[in-house]
Design goal:
- By secondary structure, the chain is of the alpha/beta class.
- It folds into two domains: 141 residues, Roll (Urease, subunit C, domain 1); 302 residues, TIM Barrel (Alpha-Beta Barrel).
- It is built from 14 helices and 18 strands.
- The strands form three sheets. Strands 7, 8, 9, 10, 11, 12, 13, 14 and 15 form a nine-stranded parallel beta sheet that branches. A five-stranded mixed beta sheet has the order 1-4-3-2-5, sandwiched between helices.
- Strand 13, helix 9 and strand 14 form a beta-alpha-beta unit.
- Bound molecules: guanine (GUN) and zinc ion.
- The site of zinc ion has 6 residues, from strand 7.
Amino acid sequence: METSEKSDTDIRFVCRGTFVHSTAEEALQILEDALLGVDSEGKIAFIGEGKELQKLSENFGFSPSAVTQLQQHEFFMPGMIDTHIHASQYSYAGTALDMPLLQWLNTYTFPVESHFQDLEFAKKVYTQVVKRTLRNGTTTACYFATIHTDASLLLGQIANDFGQRALVGKVCMDRNDAVKYYRETSEESQEETYRFIKELLNKKYPLVKPVVTPRFAPSCTEALLAKLGEIAKNNKLHIQSHISENLEEVELVKELFPNSESYTDIYHKCNLLTDKTILAHGCHLSDEELVLFRKTGAALSHCPNSNISLCSGVLNVRNVLNHKVKLGLGTDMAGGYSPSILDAVRRALDSSKVLTIQDPEHKTLSFEEVFRLATLGGSQALSLDERTGNFKVGKDFDALRVNVAAPGGPIDVIQNEKPQSLNSHMRLSSSTCSLAGDDRNIVEVFVAGKKVVPFSEP
Ligand SMILES: Nc1nc2[nH]cnc2c(=O)[nH]1
Ligand SMILES: [Zn+2]
């Protein structure tokens, strides 16, 4: 049994059943007939075995009859973490994937994002994104908004209202020759970043924090990048951006920053690589660049749907893991067409298999490893692993109640003739749900001990 020190904790609720999660040692740990208690602050107070019910109920002062028992085919898993998602691109998700990155940005993305100065439009789209991602089991999202400060603040408010844990970034870009009306001056970008951080922090939302967000090197001058690095450092803030997504972009960066050794070096020189930095893609990074990530503690967000949809490249996750670089999964919607991290799990496995087809020596990622990337890995990549990522005592209870056989769901559970051990059954179930399941299998979602799905009536 694992418990927090104090047993005078007030217990909010206790659940009994199978819990599936990742630890540093075990990519997929299955706790059968476990008992997990959540305290009044939404933190995990204890996790023990079902047979310890009597003792735990006395120690923690809860009634055994109040314990919620999971049903057959149900299990709890940690909430999933989307380490890279563009909330502002939801309105065209699933469309417009017919050109490569730079042309796609100019043709579709910038014109759509420019509409977010309209707060009514922003409210509609951002409400839908937060609800949709929560329903899909994203308990933590690291969001890009747009250059508009007020709309970005609105995204923070909506995430807070629905109870989602979120990092929210007002996008910074002082260079954009293609769509001139969607750009700030360097001064505006700095001043508005200050205002965004100040106003969002002043709200004191418990689960929503600002993230400094230079869009990517091609849309920022070196002076702006350096200023944003300074702002992040002085305020100890998270940083997010994109890096080495497609080859044309990498060439453009060489032209725009002729004095830098590499794409990674540009961010490094501007103090943008820290242990609170998350950079999306990295498909074309060199091993030297990965070493710099490792040294600075910066993380990568693997966005396989987007990498395939925009024909950007295939990230060699095995190589990233071998370099001990922190890594999580991202949808990168709308470069990726799905808002679901379950989809990212599937695409990450597919991408890894493509690498194995190309090189049989490549060690394919296992389902268990990718499950860890979607949960614990994401929390580490965002430096939020003290708070979330798995069922460790003292962390917030961010969890999904999954029913493999949810009525009306996409999975038909076919009973095996031979009885299986519960453990292998749950291993199969968690794998089945990730590979064949969808939001219909996610029957409840909890963030910091609060049930946020199904949505409560307004
Ligand atoms: N996929 C993707 N890559 C980017 N690089 C710079 N901006 C973007 C964006 O919005 N999406
Ligand atoms: Zn992106």
